[in-house]
Amino acid sequence: MGAEASTFQQQFHARWHCLRDPHVRALAWLLDAPDLLDAESPRWEGKIARLPAHAADLARDWLMALDHEPELLSASLELNPFTRLGRYAEKLLACYFSHQQQLVAHGMQVRAGKEETVGEFDFLLSDGANLLHWEFATKFYLLCSSDPAWASVQTADYFVGPNLADTLGAKMRKILDRQLSLGQHPAAQALLPRPIDQAQALLRGWLFYRRGEEIPSQRLGIEKNHCRGWWCTLGEIDTHLSESCAVLPRLAWLAPARMKDEELVSRSQLQEQLRTQFQADPMPVMVASLMRDEDVWLECDRGFIVPDDWQGKADKKLRGLTAPPLQGRAD
User: Fold this and answer.
1) Contact 303, 234 (CB under 8 A)
2) Of 21, 163, 205, 210, which one's alpha carbon is 20 to 30 angstroms from that of 249?
3) Each residue of 35-89: pLDDT tens digit?
4) Domain residues for 102?
């Protein structure tokens, strides 16, 4: 387990051990987690948003009250078996902005005529007299750098989603070059209470690396102290997971896990389970190593287990990939 990942989990548990409800813990993580991208990096041209300093500490009493009556938060999330992780995180953050009396609109769709959807504002926020447009994303990427081009290119596209359908570079091009310009569209301007003063992107998430891999944070505009984990193949599971471990369901990917005895499996059980599962579904699985803390188990590190042929598939997808610059930004 990397020292940085261990330090973050330990700090989170120390700060938020009092919170028991998983949704409240996820909200605390959204407010307390380090930024994924470096807002000061010139590559982002000032378009990366930040929550107020110590936002979680300032909201501690509110979070404690929610944890005491968690059904109030759960009802507002409107969860169902098909809830997407991104939408779940958005709803949690909307609760915070509403509590702060900043929320002007959340998930407001913009249409041109009856049939065409132009886009959607994730958040419209009031900041004094200013109207802010924030695009929000919660992302999880694995650094796939076995291609020799990595050494010379070092593109953000080498951070790949576990399903190989998305990259960090592609996501940022979409947000910065398209989604943040939504407020300039005539159909959007007709819906806005006043002109947008600033459009920015807020990202939360985790990045996953091979053990011992160098992390090129500064070159890629990534926040140095971002949340991170590891990834390994199914055949390498013995050297990455502790004996007490668990699969993390998708809506539990945000905050470091707090689990009960019945949610744990042994490493050998998990390996056999995944061997069978990967034959039918090759989607990588997020897992956590856990340690006992009185009557619960707390996450000490996390990672993705991928099928043994995942690296080859990722290389094939990325081979020869040389993404265009982000509107003048080096990528």
Assistant:
1) no
2) 210
3) 999 999 998 999 999 999 899 999 999 999 999 999 989 999 999 989 999 999 9
4) 3-318
